[in-house]
Design a protein that fits this description.
This protein has two domains: 104 residues, Phosphorylase Kinase, domain 1 (2-Layer Sandwich); 187 residues, Aminoglycoside 3'-phosphotransferase, Chain: A, domain 2. It has eleven helices and ten strands. The N and C termini lie far apart (56 Å). Helices cover 49% and strands 15% of the residues. The protein is an alpha+beta fold. The longest helix has 32 residues. The chain is globular. The strands form three sheets. Strands 1-2-3-5-4 form a five-stranded antiparallel β-sheet. A three-stranded antiparallel β-sheet has the order 6-8-9, with helices on one face. A two-stranded antiparallel ribbon has the order 7-10. InterPro entries: Kinase-like_dom_sf, NH2Glyco/OHUrea_AB-resist_kin. Pfam families: APH_6_hur. This is Aminoglycoside phosphotransferase family protein.
């Protein structure tokens, strides 16, 4: 059994702030139980903590640990939601190909033991063009056929839920200015889902910050919110990556469209489909941001959608 930790193991400030804001009472209850959960798995899996990763995730606490044999690893304790529940199954399916390797898991309680990556070094550390090149290489490895009996939600079902929530949020007074974009976005799912390409296992939340430097391979993905379906859904989030920088560049509208075209070509995704997925996901995310009080972020996402 691991000895009592001699290092601070408090949850990061961002985790406390975001969970309280996004998840309300459920988030606060999970945070209250977190110290006991952490101690339980340090002892159960014979792990010695080194330090808490800062700033960590939005809905997970990440602790750098040593296993009983001294091998470095990462212990991740996350709030289980509809989006995160199948993370262990996706990591197991990829088995280290393009994504962090899963060593142990208690999926029901959201506790994962992962191989140690270089958590401070993501694709955000690279110039944009180089980061996009590396990101497309990672996606090529991740987009594999799912098993016949896979547990993952389909893009069609997930998108239907997003569209329902978008309709509801668009009725709120604070969303009045976004309604023309919302109306256009809500026309897209039926067209996108009518004749989808061959489905593959998707990361679901793929962006530069979710790809970390590693030793086995140069770059590996983390934190999937897995789905099965059209690759364009996954690639859409990459199209709007580093949005603050993109927005500050000269001719941002043209730059966004060029980026979309280059990514579609690099990964052989239909450009019109990618445009539609990028538009839908940006509008949905923008309205969601407005709903949780992030007006600056929401308005920037909606402006990006208008460029497309």
């Amino acid at each position: 059994m691991a000895s009592a930790p001699q290092v601070p193991l408090e949850p990061p400030e961002r985790l406390v702030r975001v969970l309280s804001a996004w998840e309300g009472e459920a988030g606060r209850a999970w945070l209250a139980a977190l110290p006991g959960l952490l101690q339980e798995y340090l002892e159960r899996w014979e792990l010695t903590p080194e330090r808490v990763q800062q700033p960590g995730g939005n809905i997970s606490m990440v602790v750098l640990v040593r296993q009983a044999d001294g091998t470095p690893a990462t212990l991740k304790l996350g709030l289980v939601t509809a989006e995160t529940a199948q993370e262990p199954a996706a990591l197991a399916h990829w088995d280290g190909l393009g994504a962090v390797r899963l060593l142990r898991a208690d999926a029901e309680r959201g506790v994962l033991l992962l191989e140690r990556l270089h958590g401070e070094i993501s694709l955000r550390s690279l110039p944009d063009a180089k980061a996009m090149l590396e990101a497309t290489g990672v996606l090529r490895r991740l987009w594999v056929p799912p098993a016949a009996d896979h547990p993952f939600t389909s893009v069609a079902d997930h998108t239907a839920r997003l569209a329902d929530k978008l309709r509801q949020r668009a009725e709120q007074p604070w969303a009045v200015d976004a309604r023309p974009l919302v109306d256009e976005a809500l026309e897209l799912p039926d067209r996108l889902l009518a004749e989808p390409p061959e489905p593959v296992l998707l990361h679901g939340d793929f962006h530069h910050g979710n790809v970390l430097a590693a030793d086995r391979l140069p770059w590996l993905a983390i934190d999937p919110k897995p789905l099965v379906g059209d690759p364009g859904y996954d690639l859409a989030w990459l199209v709007r990556d580093r949005l603050d920088t993109l927005a500050a560049a000269p001719a941002a509208r043209s730059a966004a469209r060029r980026r979309l075209g280059k990514l579609a070509e690099a990964l052989e995704v239909d450009q019109d489909r990618l445009r539609d997925w990028s538009f839908f996901r940006a509008v949905e995310a923008g309205v969601w941001s407005l709903s949780v009080g992030d007006r600056e972020g929401g308005e920037l996402l909606l402006e990006f959608a208008s460029w497309l």
